[in-house]
Amino acid sequence: MGKQEYCVTGGTGFIAAYLIKSLLQHGHTVRATVRDPGDEDKVGFLWELEGAKERLKLVKADLLVPESFDDAVRGVDGVFHTASPVLVPYDDNIQESLIDPCIKGTLNVLRSCSKSQTVKRVVLTSSCSSIRYRFDAQAASPLDESNWTDLDYCKRYNLWYAFAKTSAEKEAWRIAEEHGIDLVVVNPSFVVGPLLGPKPTSTLLLVLAIIKGSL
Ligand SMILES: NC(=O)c1ccc[n+]([C@@H]2O[C@H](COP(=O)([O-])OP(=O)(O)OC[C@H]3O[C@@H](n4cnc5c(N)ncnc54)[C@H](OP(=O)(O)O)[C@@H]3O)[C@@H](O)[C@H]2O)c1
């Protein structure tokens, strides 16, 4: 495969950092979207990755800003959409802090991809949370990618992350079909490992809370 250019959304994230590292190691050029490219505390570690100084570009983009990803995906060969709120306090602002960025953000990214003439494939990091929350989970097991989380189940048990990820993935498939986008979705469960960034994010904070006994 020749050297190509890829966009990774949510460049400061745990999974995104590994994607960026790997793409750079393979000689590709990477555009990583971040909310604030000037925030050295958050993005500084990315510049230390092998090949970053030559082939990494940071592009400002926010999930809640329509067309925010247009520049980031224009001209790239493929897009890895990982950006999403993950660990947010379940309070009155759940719509603003979690549901809207997750669903509207995915729509924004996919719409930007549909406008790009160059994107050959989009890889969306969904979640096993989009599969496993159902009233009939036990009877229907083993569950696989043909199963969907039941949105009514999520509402009944306040599973708003699962609600948001399921809705976002459904919207992504709808937009992809509408615009002829080659979409691949991955549905991970607990992704852990050595931290590349300066501070633990979402899942590692959960693991830390379990170790410390605060969860
Ligand atoms: N880690 C897991 O175990 C796991 C399991 C299943 C699925 N996933 C999915 O995989 C993806 C990556 O997970 P992760 O663990 O790597 O997440 P993470 O480390 O918490 O990173 C999340 C990223 O999303 C960005 N983000 C959040 N809200 C945003 C907004 N409004 N606009 C732009 N960017 C925003 C964050 O940017 P800031 O730094 O600016 O906040 C950060 O870069 C997520 O979609 C998650 O749902 C993760």
TrEMBL record:
Annotated keywords: NADP, Oxidoreductase
NAD-dependent epimerase/dehydratase domain location: 7-197
GO molecular function, a single term: oxidoreductase activity, acting on the CH-OH group of donors, NAD or NADP as acceptor
Domain of life of the native organism: Eukaryota
Pfam family, any one: Epimerase
Family affiliation: Belongs to the NAD(P)-dependent epimerase/dehydratase family. Dihydroflavonol-4-reductase subfamily.
Record-given protein name: NAD-dependent epimerase/dehydratase domain-containing protein
Lineage, broadest ranks: Eukaryota, Viridiplantae, Streptophyta, Embryophyta, Tracheophyta
